[in-house]
Amino acid sequence: KNAATKPTSSSLSSFENNANFNYSSTKKQGTATTTNICPFTNYLQLHGNIDILCLQEHKIPLSQLSSRAEPHRCSTISGYESFWSCATDPKSRGFNGVVTYAKVGMVQSADCTPLKDPELDGQGRCVLTDHGGFVVFNVYVP
After folding, report:
1. Averaged over 114-135, what is the pLDDT?
2. In this structure, are residues 101 and 3 in contact, taking their beta carbons and an 8 Å threshold?
């Protein structure tokens, strides 16, 4: 879990889905967006007030993320927390990868190995975030 500066790239993907939801405790409506996006973009900055953003195919190796050498410093976006799953399987390195951004305080817990299968989890294809009243599975399936 990384505390969530805005990235600067501006390329966008054409694969996008939006959903509205209600926070269970406050009955406040929110917006969740998912998109297959490669390379990483300044999607949050360009698309307004998104509560949860799920990105697939970030293709950022865990070594870059761990050393804070990721492109555009995309693991830290003001006002958001980010939850990453990176491909760690030697056959999949540099491929796949999903990340979920959620406004600070929305996530109770997260799991980057939710499938509990080392082969599948090592491909960086799924991250789970628990928001209390609902759970989000951010999944990349080719």
Report:
1. 91
2. no
Q: Where are the beta strands (DSSP E) in the chain?
A: 16-22, 29-36, 52-56, 80-85, 98-103, 109-111, 126-130, 135-139
CA 24 – CA 14 distance, rounded (Å): 31
Q: Is 122 helix (H, G, I), strand (E, B) or coil?
A: coil
Round the CA-based radius of gyration of the chain to a whole number and report it: 14
Angstrom CA distances, 9 to 82, 85, 86, 124, 138, stand at: 18, 21, 20, 23, 22
Q: Give CA–CA dist 82/75, Å, rounded.
A: 6
Which tens digit of pLDDT belongs to each residue from 29-63? 676 766 666 445 566 667 667 888 888 888 887 87
Tens digits of per-residue pLDDT, 8-31?
A: 233 333 344 555 555 555 556 676
Phi-psi map region of 132: left, alpha, beta (phi>0 left; psi -120 to 50 alpha): left
Tallying the residues shown for the chain, one arrives at: 142
